[in-house]
Amino acid sequence: MINTLTVRRKTNKKFMFLSALGIIMVVDAHAWTALGLFTEFIPYNSFFMPMFVFISGYFNKIDGDTDLKPYCYRKLKNLLIPYLAIVFVSFWLEWIMDWIKLGQSPKILFPDDLESIIMSVITDGDPVSICSPMWFVPTLFTLLITYSVIKKCFYKYWNGIVMLIVFCIFSTFVVWLAQNIKIPHILLLPCKCLFFLPYLELGIIYRERIEPKTERLPKSANIVLLALLLLVNMIRMMILPNSSDIGFINLAYLSGFTSPYIITPMISSIVGISFWVIMIDTIGNAFYDNRLVNYISENTLWILSFHVFFFNVLNFMLYLWNDAIAPIQGFDIKAFKQTTWYRWEYYKEFRLAYFIVGLLGPLLLKKLFDHLKISLTKNNKTDNKIT
Known about the structure:
Elements: H1 13-30, H2 48-58, H3 68-102, H4 111-121, H5 136-153, H6 160-180, H7 188-214, H8 219-239, H9 264-283, H10 291-298, H11 300-324, H12 333-338, H13 351-386
C-alpha cells in the first residue's frame, strides 16, 4: 500500500479507485456491512487486507540499482512515524472517552502499561482499541523493508514466478502454524510478513505481465470473468464445511483460519483481488475523475486511523440522547461503556449511519487539519517578514 497509505497526490486512476474501494470495504466491514458489496459471494474478510498489499506491490519498483537508505527513510516517514503519532493521539482520545463513559478519574499510565503498549506496537500492532485497524501499518512497513532487502540482495537471480511460488509456500505454512499451534506473540510480526509476501510479488507480476494483456480485453470478456469468479466462490462456499470458512477473521493476531484447507486463504484472496481489479477495469472510467473517490484514495491513512473513533462519536450522541432526551430502544449502555466496538443495531438500517460517519468523519478531520496547517504556515511566514 505504498500509495494507499500516504497523503501524496496520486495519478494512477485505476489504482486510486481500487484503494478507495478497499478502504470503503474496511469501514463497511467494521460498520457490520451496511453496503455489503458482493459480500454474499466474496466476503470482505476473504481478501481485502491482501488486496492492500497487492496494491503496494503494484507500485513497488525495487531493483538492483535501488538505494535502500532513502527508500527505507521514505517508508519510515510515510508509514511508521504517522502510525506512532496516531497511536499516541488515539491513546489519549480513548483515555478521555473512558473517563466520560465511566464517570470516574481515568487510570494513570504506569510503566507496565507503557511496556505493554510498546510490545504491542512491535507484535500485533494493536495497542489502542480505538485505532486497532492500524495494526496493518507496522506490518506493511516491515513487509516492504524485508522484501526490499531480499530483492536487493538476490536481484541478479530474481525470477518473479519462482519467488511467487516460494512466497506462497511461506504463506500457507503460516496458515498451517496458525491452525495447529498458538503462534507466540513475539513471532506475530514476522509471521504476518510471511503471510503477505506472495501478494506483494503478485502486484508486481500483475503490473509487468498481466495488466498489459488484460487492457486489450473487451468489456464482454470482463463480464464473463466476473461471473466465473462469483461462480467459483459460490461453489467453494458450498464445498467448505461452513460458508464463513472462505474468509479469515483476525489477521492482526493470525487467527480465524477456520477452513480445514490451508490453501483456502490464498485462493480466497486471489479470487477477491481478481474480481475487484476486473470490476474496475469494466466500470472504473465512470469514477476516475470523481473528486470524492480521489479524495478518499488520497486519505486512506486518515480513514483507517479514525473511522472507529467516529463510530464512537456517534455512539456518544446516541448515549446523550438516551440519557437526556428520550430512551433509545435497544441501546445497550453497559456494552457502550465496556467496548469501543459497540454498535446500536436495533434497526439494521442504522448501520449505514455508522458507515457514513466512519467514512466522512476522518475526511472532514483531514480537511480541518489541512486548513490549520495552512493557517500556521501563513502566520509563520508573516512573523518572519515582520522580524
